[in-house]
Amino acid sequence: MANPKISTIPSPCFVLEEKKLRKNLKLLQRVRAKADVEIILAFKAFANWKIFPIIREYLDGATASSLWEARLCLEEMGSLAHTYAPAYLPEEFDQIIKRSSYITFNSLTQFKTFYPKIKAFKKRKINCGLRINPEYSEVETELYNPCAPGSRLGELWTNIGTKLPEGINGLHFHNLCESDSYALEKTLKNIEKYFGHLLPQIEWINMGGGHLITKKGYDVAHLIKILKAFKKKHQLKITLEPGSAIAWQTGFLRTSVLDITENKGIKTAILDASFTAHMPDTLEMPYRPDVQGTVEKSDYPYRLGGVSCLAGDYLENYYFKKPLKVGDPIILEDMMHYTMVKTTMFNGVKHPDFAVIDLEGILTVLRKFTYQDFKRRLG
Ligand SMILES: Cc1ncc(COP(=O)(O)O)c(C=O)c1O
């Protein structure tokens, strides 16, 4: 079925396309089965819980970075979370235990602080992990590089010694970002080099996220091969917790042109959405979204301007096939991962709705934001 006409979609609105999401999930499910690994969704990238029933059909659960995400996991995914946070709040830890099957600590001191509580929890087994820092990453943007010198994320091998403390039965690393299987292969070499003596002491290893398995050109067969080889060699349960790969290229942000300004020859189309409030990665990373209807070069270049008053709330050099006018729809592609989880209500700008286009091509708006949502956040 064809997608609904853009004019029938409210503006601004994040729109998830179920068909594309299922295509990603099917591929991940294949990796999961062929490599005999566990694949869970990293909520930090995508946590629109009304979509969890679809995700649950294909994956094994989710990873949480906080008590609230662990709670969402149990309430809406229906499973106990694999929880990891750079540090836990003492007053929340009992509640985290109740909602997690795996708890990973960022440091040995955090493990020592909280392990007595886990030991005292008799209802079921909690798997305790330690995050390690493999000191290898191909991520060039410092903001996204967990292995940058001085990083606070994960223990270095030099801090651990030859024996893991009693109670730790797994290791966790996360050093990739939108990476390929060859970056993982090099990482695993470092893991063996620096942490190889610890591998016989554990039962499971969590290889974090950043595996962009659903990107065109990703060498899925190579990934399956290296996962199987690592599993066979070390006899470990393997977990992958991608976020981006699940929601990669599964939807768009529909916006509209509100005005067109001109300053020293630069034309800016001001949208009814904001880069800083609704697409922060476009400024932080920076990540440049494709925009429908644009070409490499034309006589109609525009800046796309956000509706907030932040001076830098814009992206530039988008070339349209024809001049823009007020009311035109502007469709920003690939806007599902790390968007809705990160949005703010900065400036009180209208927050985009969230809608889904189902397999029949029918659009359903799942969430509309109101003035009350804005007001309640602030008092
Ligand atoms: C510990 C951990 N796991 C998983 C992920 C998900 O990574 P991605 O969305 O790049 O797959 C992240 C992202 O920052 C992370 O920090």
Give an overview of the whole structure.
- The protein folds into two domains: 6-14 and 251-335 and 343-377, Lyase, Ornithine Decarboxylase, Chain A, domain 1 (Beta Barrel); 36-247, TIM Barrel.
- The protein contains twelve helices and 18 strands.
- It has helices at 18-35, 52-56, 67-77, 93-99, 108-120, 157-160, 181-195, 220-234, 244-247, 275-278, 281-284, 371-377; strands spanning 13-17, 38-39, 41-42, 62-64, 81-84, 100-105, 127-131, 170-172, 204-206, 237-240, 251-263, 266-271, 294-295, 300-305, 314-320, 329-333, 353-357, 363-367.
- The strands form two sheets. Strands 1, 11, 12, 13, 14, 15, 16, 17 and 18 form a nine-stranded mixed beta sheet that branches. It has a nine-stranded parallel beta sheet with strand order 2-10-9-8-7-6-5-4-3.
- The longest helix is centred in the first third of the chain and has 18 residues, at 18-35.
- It is globular, with a radius of gyration of 22 Å.
- The termini are far apart.
- The mean pLDDT is 97.
- The site of pyridoxal-5'-phosphate has 14 residues, from α9.
Counting copies of identical and different chains, the oligomeric state is: single chain
Bound molecules: pyridoxal-5'-phosphate
Give a count of the beta strands, DSSP E runs of length 2 or more: 18
What's the CATH architecture name of the largest domain? Alpha-Beta Barrel
Distance between the termini: 45 Å
Indicate the overall shape: globular
Largest sheet: 9 strands, mixed
- The percent range for helix content is 25-40%
Number of domains: 2
CATH class of the largest domain: Alpha Beta
Provide mean pLDDT, rounded.
Answer: 97
CATH third-tier fold name of the largest domain: TIM Barrel
Relative strand content: 15-25%
Low-confidence sequence ranges: none
The H/E string reads: EHEEHEHEHEHEHEHEHEHEEHHEEEEEEH
Content-based structural category: alpha/beta
CATH superfamily of the largest domain: Alanine racemase
Instruction: Output the number of helix runs.
Output: 12
* Rg of Cα set: 22 Å
